[in-house]
Amino acid sequence: xxxxxxxxxxxxxxxxxxxxxxxxxxxxxxxxxxxxxxxxxxxxxxxxxxxxxxxxxxxxxxxxxxxxxxxxxxxxxxxxxxxxxxxxxxxxxxxxxxxxxxxxxxxxxxxxxxxxxxxxxxxxxxxxxxxxxxxxxxxxxxxxxxx
Length: 147
Prior knowledge:
By secondary structure, the chain is an all-alpha fold. It has helices spanning 5-19, 23-28, 32-56, 59-82, 92-114, 121-143. The protein has one domain (5-143). The chain contains six helices and no strands.
């Protein structure tokens, strides 16, 4: 059975809504690695929220979701850095964050292509910020911590 894209998105949102990992919940987490994961979960949820708002034509909600998504990714990266761990020696959460940011960038690129030309600039700052976080995570995994 093949579902139409809007129906699939609606089903995903209904499933993701109860799982929505609020950014405040992530900030309340004392374990920095878990905080990072909660923040990345929130970034995924905000991406879905931005897509849904765009389908409805609510550009203000799209911009708000994109901003929170960007803040979530930055919180995840900051939290991982605050652990003080070497990404090469303890790669578990660093690699997970690298994979999650890479997937998010792919989704954002597809979203960017679906948006009208006039609306694309609202994604540019978030894409650039998330790309920098992804690149920094990848370099950390490949080179490790500088002494």
